[in-house]
Design a protein that fits this description.
CATH architecture of one domain: Orthogonal Bundle
Radius of gyration: 34 Å
Largest sheet: none
Number of strands: 0
């Protein structure tokens, strides 16, 4: 539009000669400066910018993320406390777990005895603290046996397949068809009584769960490209299994190990409640509840408070297992 025509338009002030638009030079125009040859009708061709690598969260960021999970923090506190009881029980109680004072028998919970005393005047909390050594050690041994045996059988079944897979998984189906507690009782009948035999029995009864989940993970990993590349490069199958397949498939198995630890605590406590565990007066979690059931009406604390602690430990392991599974899914 010409300058004379602009002067006739109401509300529009024409530009003076010094205010008229002057096209920027090549040095002032970024499009021309970046594109000296004038490609694309004056539009500069931008060079592709490198994609920044994702920043890994720092240790402080991971710790602050844990603080946003109060249930997980509570579970870790419960498990850490129980493990500390098992390692150094004498630090947490001044009382003897075996010998008591008859004058203090069947005292209710108080500041002196937070969990009360039993029929022989022994501090119930002290017996539970010292009993954590036996119960947690047996539970850990049971999980190690189940994890080692089940993971190995699952690896072989998922990688070798064929007749090996059929034989192993049909045997696992037979184990799953029998209730775990009944199978544990059957194994204990052959091995004999005692905490060690209970741990072996519970571990063997829990093997099938680890074998099945490990097999499913191996089947999903065995067809990956790097596994095929390892096969074509001439690597032997034991090397492929333990150096390639196992690290990629172990995370869900570890999450299962956490929840199976809680199940082992329940199973070992149940078997010791039935009298298959350590002989008295050695304290054991299930045996404490069994000893207090004869005084349930007069001394409710002998069974109720140890039972609540066992429930807290089992729920804490379940919460830890869910957190490990969520981390495995995100990774």
């Amino acid at each position: 539009m010409s300058q004379a025509l602009l002067e006739t338009v109401p509300g529009v002030t024409p530009l003076s000669r010094t205010e008229r638009y002057v096209a920027p030079s090549g040095l002032d125009n970024p499009d021309i400066r970046d594109n000296p040859e004038g490609r694309g009708h004056g539009t500069a061709e931008r060079t592709p910018q490198p994609v920044p690598e994702p920043v890994k969260p720092s240790s402080f960021a991971r710790f602050s993320g844990l603080l946003r999970l109060p249930s997980l923090i509570l579970a870790l506190v419960v498990l850490a406390t129980v493990i500390a009881w098992a390692i150094i029980p004498s630090v947490f109680t001044p009382y003897d777990a075996v010998n008591g004072t008859l004058l203090d028998r069947l005292q209710p919970p108080s500041a002196t005895h937070p969990f009360g005393t039993d029929n022989l005047g022994r501090d119930t909390l002290a017996r539970f603290i010292y009993g954590s050594q036996t119960t947690l050690l047996a539970s850990g041994l049971a999980v190690v046996i189940a994890l080692g045996t089940g993971a190995l059988l699952g690896l072989l079944a998922g990688y070798l397949r064929g007749l090996v897979d059929e034989a192993i998984m049909r045997f696992m189906d037979v184990i799953l068809a029998i209730p775990a507690l009944l199978l544990s009782l059957t194994i204990i009948t052959g091995l004999g009584f005692g905490t060690l035999n209970i741990a072996i029995a519970v571990g063997l009864a829990s093997t099938a769960a680890f074998a099945r989940i490990m097999r499913s993970q191996v089947l999903s990993v065995a067809t990956a490209g790097y596994i095929e590349a390892a096969k074509l490069s001439g690597a032997r199958w034991p090397s492929i299994i333990f150096r390639q397949v196992l690290p990629a498939a172990i995370t869900p198995v570890l999450a299962l190990a956490a929840i199976e630890f809680g199940a082992a605590v329940l199973a070992i406590s149940a078997l010791s409640f039935l009298g298959f565990g350590a002989p008295p007066p050695q304290p054991e979690w299930g045996a404490l509840i069994s000893e207090g059931r004869d005084y349930l009406q007069a001394a409710w604390w002998l069974t109720t408070l140890p039972g609540l602690l066992i429930v807290a430990v089992v729920l804490s392991t379940a919460r830890l297992s869910r957190w490990l599974q969520d981390r495995g899914d995100r990774s």
